[in-house]
Amino acid sequence: MNNFPTLYKKELKNYLYTPTNFIFIALFGLINNWLFFQNFFLIQQATLNQFFDNLPFLLLFLIPALSMSLLSEEKKKGTWEILLSLPINEIEIILAKFFAGLSLIFFALLTTISSAITVFLLGNPDFGLIASGYLGALWLSASYLSLGIFISGLINQQTAAFFISFVVLFINDLFNQEFFLMKLPFQIKNFFEFLSLRSHYEEIATGLLTGKSLWFFISWITIFLSLAYIRLKKK
Amino acid sequence: MIKLTNIYKSFGRKKVLQNINFEIKKGAITGLLGPNGAGKTTTMRIIAGILKPDRGSVQINNLYLNQNPLKVKSIIGYLPEDNPLYEFLTVKEYLKFIGAIKKGKNLKKQMEKLVKELGLDKVLTEKIEYLSRGFKQRVGLAASLLGDPKILILDEATSGLDPNQRIEIRNFIKTLKKTVLFSSHILPEVQQICSEVVIINNGKIIAQGKIDKLLKTTPRLKVGIKNATEAKIKNYFQRFSDINLKIETKNNLVWLSLETQQKINLREIIWAMIKKNRDWQIYEMEEKKQNLEEIFNQLTKDE
Predict the structure, then answer these.
(1) How far apart are CA B25 and CA A17, in angstroms?
(2) I want to staple B221 with a disulfide (CB 3.0 to 4.6 A). Which of A186, B37, B238, B258 is the partner?
(3) How many Å separate Cα B43 from the centre of its chain?
(4) Residue A226 above 90 pLDDT?
(5) Is A89 within 8 Å of B70 when comparing Cβ atoms?
(6) Cβ contact A165:A67 at 8 Å
(7) Helices in chain A by DSSP H: which ranges?
């Protein structure tokens, strides 16, 4: 893992160089804050519950948009050849892309901090709950990102990579929606709910940091990063 | 230094390489030639460790590439076709990035030396995106040389450059004293800098060896004969199926162009023909040395 810091720095520089990333982040921040403040003064409660409810849906758009180019762009520009000809373990490439992407998502989540500050200024919210919410959002983002990286490695076309990542994550999101679950038999319902990333996110966001949820997130991330690695290695 | 044994590679149903075998000795500059789609780039990518062969083995410096990929990659410098670069980085940042991965001794000194030798000092802090093609090529070359690799693989290193830039890069490669595998479409260029060639067509090696030897294996003769007739000459050459004959009559002289891939003494055949036809006189006989371009055309057309 000697080359990880070098590759990570390169990935971050690439993000800084790409203006569309900033547009996505700015839009993400604007929409999040707009959705939050629209109802905040009406419900008259110093809580970020609504914000954390909306967040997974917005991340469904943001993360595939950020991840769609992670591997396919290198292939398109041919820089892939440079990377693969260097004495680098392929896992370092995948991890550098994953952590650089996660850093950018962390930065995107920072744009929503104004909502949290407002809540603290106007009331006395539970700090632990808000911290759990952000922690859950990071785990959820990391899971979305790992899938996005895998799909970006699978499909060369960026738009197609975005669309497929979005659809897969959207379907996964449905596994936690009541209108979908109520149509299923009880045993299957539990299984689908367990597979839903959002259900584990909600558990953490409500302050229940269980081993089951953490294990699920870690397994999901490991599986998709490993698949991306295997795909890369196979070439 | 580089040894490829029974290499096969397919992309889907398309067989790109079939039974590729060649060896490049330490310090040799070898040209890899072939028409577009012949399998040159795939061969180079396999040697550079970017692609895996379906079958066969690659040995670099007595190390098997599939068993020691990182070790092998650390002794190879690779400049891909089209020279892809991280254009969002400055020249300095890019070279530092490559250097940090390649490691090696005195990297800073190496970088300074390469920057000076390749004339990159003026553009060191400029973003690669804004450089001219010539400078980009130099950046790619400098990056491939960082870490002092023992082997250089240069895929179309001079393509798209103007004649002066090509000469500069060519001269620079000649001074490197490394084992080089060099592919180019400009055959006179290959003839100038390479001592050996491997010619590949439709995924198969069709010729390989020292350029001088290869030129000798395809003798060519041009003969002008007085008083002869085309019909009689054609009739005489019917028995030599390995000789490619072209005849034309100009100013009462019959001109013959003879070529063969076999070890045949064309002069002896001509003298024997003259002996049989005593009224014929040789007006001119010239042995023409082929250049690499002609050999290449001939070999790739035959396939």
Answers:
(1) 43
(2) B258
(3) 12
(4) yes
(5) yes
(6) yes
(7) 4-17, 19-43, 49-67, 72-77, 79-85, 90-110, 113-122, 127-154, 158-174, 178-181, 186-195, 197-205, 211-234
Nearest residue in chain B measured CA to CA from A86? B73
List C-alpha distances in Å: A139 to A28, A72, A135. 18, 24, 6
Interface touch B73/A85, C-beta < 8 Å: yes
Cα–Cα distance measured from residue A127 to residue A133, given in angstroms and rounded to the nearest whole number: 10
As beta bridge partners, residue B76 has B151
Instruction: Determine whether the interchain pair B84/A13 forms a contact, defined as Cβ–Cβ distance below 8 Å.
Output: no
Interchain proximity B102–A82, CB inside 8 Å: no
- The SS3 call for residue B156 is coil
B85 with A88: Cβ contact below 8 A: no
Rounded-to-integer distance, Cα A94 and Cα A79, Å: 15
Secondary structure of residue B62 in the 3-state scheme:
coil
Give the tens place of pLDDT for each residue, B156-208.
888 778 888 888 888 888 888 899 999 987 888 888 889 899 999 889 998 88
| Burial class of residue A82 in the structure, from the number of CB atoms within 10 Å of its CB (0-12 exposed, 13-18 middle, 19+ buried) | buried
Structure tokens at B103: 């490691």
Ranges A144-153, B50-59, B237-246: which has the least confidence = B237-246
Total residue length of chain A: 235
Helix or strand or coil: residue A7?
Answer: helix
Cβ-contact A99, A8 below 8 angstroms: yes
Burial status of residue A219 (CB atoms within 10 A of its CB: 0-12, 13-18, 19 or more): exposed
Q: Are B44 and B53 in contact (CB under 8 A)?
A: no
Bridge partners for B256 per DSSP: B223, B247
Contacts of A137 (CB under 8 A, 6+ apart): A52, A55, A59, A109, A201, A205
- Using CA atoms, how far residue B270 sits from B14, B226, B290, in Å, is 46, 13, 19
Amino acid at residue number B119: G
Confidence (pTM): 0.81
**Coil, strand or helix at B34:** coil
**Neighboring chain B residues of A84 at a CB cutoff of 8 Å:** 48-50
Structure tokens belonging to residue A163: 């669309």
Q: Which residue matches tokens 């069709």?
A: B206
Chain A hits for B50, CB-CB cut-off 8 Å, are: 81, 84-85
pLDDT at res. B63: 93
Q: Rounded to the nearest 5 degrees, what angle is found at the Cα of A35, between the Cα atoms of A34 and A36? A: 90
Judged by CB atoms closer than 8 Å, whether chains meet at B52 and A88 is answered as no
B11 vs A: CB within 8 A: no
Residue A211 has pLDDT above 60, yes or no: yes
